[in-house]
Amino acid sequence: MTRADGMQPIPVEADAVIAVPIGDVEFTLDLSVFEGPLQLLLHLIESRQLDVLTVPLAEVADAYVEHLTRHPVDAVNLSEFVATAAQLIYLKSRRMLPAEPLPPLPDGTDEPDEDELRRRLLEYRALRDAAVKLSGRDGIRPLLRREPRDSDLPEAPSEPMPVAILAAALERLASIPEPTSPPPEIVAREITIGQQIGVLRRALSRSGRIVLQSILARCQSRTEAAVTFLATLELVRRRQVTARQDELFGPIVVESLPEAGT
Fold this sequence. Notes:
Order of helices and strands: EEHHHHHHEHHEE
Largest sheet: 3 strands, antiparallel
Shape: elongated
Strand content: 5-15%
Helix content: 40-55%
Low-confidence stretches: 1-23
Number of strands: 5
Structural class: mainly alpha
Strand order of the largest sheet: 3-5-4
Mean pLDDT: 73
C-alpha cells in the first residue's frame, strides 16, 4: 500500500516496473506519507506522483540503518542505497532553496538542476536493472580468454631514422631480382565415372570379385574415392555387378554377374 500526506492511496501505473536490489528484498519503509519498498518510493518520485518535499529522508536513513542491524547486506547494495539517498537529499535541498536566481557559478562547474537529478535517478534505475539481469546470466556460459600472443615484429624506433639508413634499405629492396618465370600452374586432375568404371572392370576381370574398400584405399583424393563409389553404383544400376555388405561398416563385396560376361 502507498499513501501520500497520510490521506488517499497514490495510484501507480499498471506497467510500472519496480526493481529490487539484490539482497534487500525485505527492506520496506513505513513513513507518514508512504508505505512500501524503497524502489516504489523512487518510482513515485521519478514519475512526479510524490513530492520529494513530503518525504522525511531522515526517517528513510534511520529505517535502513535499522534494517542493517537485522539483515546482513553486502557492500554493493549498501553503496547503491548511499548513492540513491545522496541524490534524494540533493534533490530535496534544491526544492527547499528560495526561487530567486542564484549568482552564476564559476567557469568549469556544472551544478545539476531538478530535471537533471531526475534524469540521473532514471539512469541509475536502468543501470541497476541491467545489473540484476546480467547477474542472472552469470555462469550460463563460461568466458574463455587466452593470453595475447607475443609479436615477433621489432618495436618501431621512437626517434626518426636517418635518411641514409632508409636509402640503403630501399636500395637493398631494389636489388632483389624478380622471378624469371612464373610458378608452374597446378592443373586439377579430371576424374570421370566412366574412367572409374574401367578401373572396376579391370579389377573384376582378374578374379570376378573384389572388396570395394581395397579399390578406395588406392585413390589419391577424396574426389577420386567419391567418383569410384558412384561408378560402383552405376554398375549395380546396369545390373552388371552386385554389391553386398553383410554387417554394418563391414567390407563391401562387389561381384560380376554372369550376364555381364566379365
